Amino acid sequence: MSLKTYTFVLHGLRTHLNTLLALFASCVLLCGFSASAAETALADTPQVFRQYKDAVVQIRIMDKRSNNRTALGTGFAVDDAGHVISNFHVISEVVWHPESFRAEAVRANGSVVPLAISGFDVVHDLSLLKLATPLGTHLTLDAGPLDKGTTLYSFGIPLDLDFTIVRGLYNGLLPKSLREQIHFTGAINPGMSGGPTMTEAGRVIGINVATSGNDVGFLVPARYAVALLQQRANAPINSAAQMLKLMDTQLVAEQNALATRLLAAPLTTDTLDHYRTPRDWSDFFRCWSNEEHGEEKRYTSLTMVCGSQSNIFLTEDYETGTVHYSRSYVQGKGLSDLQFAHLYGSQLGVGPRVPDATREDVGNFACNTSFVRQPDGLPLKYIFCLRAHRKLPGLFDAVIMSATLDQTQSGLINRLVLGGVSYDNAVRLGRKFLGAVTWSNH
Amino acid sequence: MVEPLILEILDRHGRVAQRQKFTRFPVHVGRDYSNDLIVDDEAVSARHLTIEPGPEGGWVVEDLSSENGSYSGLRQRFTLKQIHNDDRVRIGRTQLQFRGVQSAIAPTVLQDGLLWRVSQLLGNVWIMLALLALNVGLLTWGSNTQVFTQIKPSDTAVTAGTLLLGTLLWASIWALLARLLNHRAVLFEYISLGSLLALASLLLQAFEIRLGYLAHDSAPALIVSSLVWLAVMAIMAYLHLKLATALSRRKLYTLIGTGLVVMCGFLLLSSYRDEHTFSRDLPFNNDLQLLPLSVLKVQPAGTFFDDLSDVRDSALQKGKDPD
């Protein structure tokens, strides 16, 4: 049985230099299994369950050769033509390998209906599927505003147990997030991915997508599902080539929007001894600092890591859409100049965490380095590395770094990591980011 | 006129231990003091054999009923045997080499040859000591620069001691080989050579770093320093083998050439493997030794981003389908 525990990009509360992904709330996408908490049904809940359960289906991804299931999730009907909304990550196997996998829906009464893919929104983790025979009932998507504290009901099949209803509360859109999500206070669990979360009146305001445990759940706002339904293709998408083309188009547009946003946003700096260095860029970055002392305190390393805390799921071990930047200010105390040079070089060599991907997804990195001087005269080493996404033309993962070279007992390293950007955007963002490293007294 | 006989007593390594010329025959050979050639070997009889001039040149050897016998070749025991120039006879544990005045000798070694001069230089005790001190000192200091904690005298002593013992062990092994194969005493030469080898590796490392700095890229620096490294290896291998063995120059060239070809093949194979192995590593030169920047090419920061299309093209090349 497929266990899809998947950590979202909510990076370390206590950050570590080479493992950005550390201890911060790790979210679990909901189509695997983990411990669940039983929810006591309240008086009005049986009525909601009875009324809407028939519009909800379990989605099973089947391996064509063994005819066995490989992933489970939830979906719900949104019209009488048989269209079903679920998550992209529930059906991602079918998208990448339509020759090996197929999707099917299991109704509350146990009957099985084949599913075809009509479209998806990979950026917001949504998919639009079509049932071979409509369910005869459907739910209504509602993008309208709600008050914080409104009672919501979430549907799904957690842990492959049974059709389940979960009562919880609406807690608004996540502030300071790169990609919009609703904060739902309720126990959504693996297997409920793609299920609807609705008001008592049956109006779906979000689609279950992730949890970080302890009743902290996340929903995709319904307006993205509305948009996906409106933009759907007439014919189902069958071939891997069509799927990849659609995915590439969406990801290219997304990184263009992100780059535009970052290029327009002011990059503030702060002072570290005699350097000015990037600090805040956009409100969706969260930053953590840490100070490491070397053995016998012969050096200190002051680090700061800022992450966008949002990835785009492509497969279980392939992510994109990541942006994070970090800095390390290394100071030697009583080391010889050569000892410091070795230390500083080894700190630079550690490199930042790069987005998850396998050999099938991306090529190896290629780099260029140069010694440069900022307009104010600060000498630096610049490093620019790219790797290409094999199946998504025009997209690269970029690592852009600098190290100051004017001191013999201290140095400042800055790093910017961009997952899935175009070459032009990598260059533009790199120029802006590294341009902010200067001397403080100029 | 009877041809004079030169008898050589060889030691266990085949080296001449004693050499004597005879013009009067018969020549008596044995352990007691009445013999013409007294052999100091417990396995030789008191009166072991006599040598007479042969009727058609050469000599005739007669065994005098010795306890352990006389042998020609490996195991051929004889009582009477015709012996020619450059033949050997074994009695007990002793080899007797028969030489006439016409026996060939090796050509004179020219004292102004390169190898001779290098050998003289490396064998000089002061030069040997200087190189050994330089080797131990520099390598100990070099390893200290890669430690970021307080360096204790005991750590330095351990590093220096290891280097010293290592160099001496290396030299001893080669010197022993040279002694066995070439009958030469060249321990000092090998201590010098071993020190040079260690120093060369240190210098090459520094050379590679400097080159990487100048080229802004580790790849060309790696290629150039690999070539230099191979050349140094070839020279070192030549000197080591030439001192230790009696191989002809031609054989040495063939041997070293083969070794280099094998090494190059290995380097090519491993670079091919690296190119086709998936890695998340960033292949850049992270060395930050703070050289004076004036010796390096420094460009304005703004222009760095003007054209990075070579990185893009290289990334695209590496991103082509793995199969």
UniProtKB/TrEMBL annotation, chain A:
Note whether Signal occurs among the keywords. Answer: yes
Q: Carries keyword Membrane?
A: no
InterPro entries, per database record: Peptidase_S1_PA, Peptidase_S1C
Signal peptide bounds? 1-37
Q: Which UniProt keywords apply?
A: Signal
**Pfam families assigned:** Trypsin_2
* Domain of life per record: Bacteria
- PANTHER family membership: PROTEASE DO-LIKE 5, CHLOROPLASTIC, SERINE ENDOPROTEASE DEGS
Name of the protein in question: Trypsin-like peptidase domain-containing protein
UniProtKB/TrEMBL annotation, chain B:
Q: Which UniProt keywords apply?
A: Membrane, Transmembrane, Transmembrane helix
Query: Which InterPro entries does the UniProt entry name for this protein?
Result: FHA_dom, SMAD_FHA_dom_sf
Where does the FHA domain start and stop, copy by copy?
27-71
Q: Which residues cross the membrane?
A: 121-141, 161-180, 187-207, 219-240, 252-272
Q: Which Gene3D superfamilies match?
A: 2.60.200.20
Protein name stated in the entry? FHA domain-containing protein
